[in-house]
Write the structure tokens for this entry.
Amino acid sequence: MVDFQQFMTKIINSLYQMRLFSEDELASRTGMGLEEAKIAFRQYVLESGLMPLPSINFSALGMKEVRVFMDFQCSAIDAIPMIMLSFRERGFLVSYYRVMHACRYVTRHAVPLNLVKSYEEFLGELVELGYLRNFEIKYMDASYRFSPSPYVFDYRRGEWNVVSVSNVEDRSLPAFKTERFPNLDEVDIKILVGLKRHPLQKRENLASSLGLTLEQVNEHLLDHVIGGDLIKGWYLYFGPKFNERDVLLIGAYFQDVGDNGALSEVLRLPYLIFLGRAPDWVESVNVVPGYRITSVLEALERIMRKSRSCEYLAYISPFYDLDALSSNTGSTFLENNFADGQWTFYPEMLLDDIRTSVRLGRKGYQS
């Protein structure tokens, strides 16, 4: 007999395999009837305060994912929210966290391959101009998003289990397209942004909101979004109400993981929501209820010792994982930095925005 955790695991794994979300496909993949799938999804996902989001395949968009540790000057602290807004609109910002140290932010960007060097030079310029004290950049080969494990999160009540288990269901890393999709155009970008902002909307509404015909949307969804593997799958993520709870983000990096089993250990972390990979390091990000922080840190320490990692870096942040591409207000770099089939970067405009943000932040602080 299938228990509830196994039932939810089946739903979650079905979402991972979808390129476009639909309750019909959810029913087909899980073997449920359509009405049963609809009721289960609404009751155990939406009513629990979670939302399905598409995981964009930045490799297929011709981009390199990077993680940046930004140490801001304390004089710029009041301007950081506006600076992040500028990075969202012009600086390839995908998401960011604020670490407990008030002036340090951990940011994730998707930078066009031909602009990586220019982007790193731009960050260096921010140091020279005194906005950043320093920064550290790490390049990812691939990233993966995970839904909260039903063994530690109770989807029936929308709350963490008081006692969680250590042996989570086995996670696997799916294969997805790593080369650039050659026929990318502005319509594809509009569709990706529309799906990130309103993932459950009907195609007719998506077409209307983007100023496209339903035929255009269907054609690009089939031939480009699905055919080009522009979406890696869907995952469940926490809604706004979880920002008010005793929940923290714990991130960690392990160096020299190679073939020594650290990756498999990281995949079994019960609170894992994000994993980044490169040839010589792996990153884990975990959403953790306050009463489990110590046990998670101990688990990370054990992975470090087992993997004989030459470097282990952990950061703890309030639950502040802001997905810049899902914001319902303002524009994003996907819209602003793509034209005529090419990615562009305007460092002068981004720098002007940052200067304005710092100036306004200082005025607000003085008043």
Remarks:
- The longest strand covers residues 63-72.
- The chain has a mean pLDDT of 87.
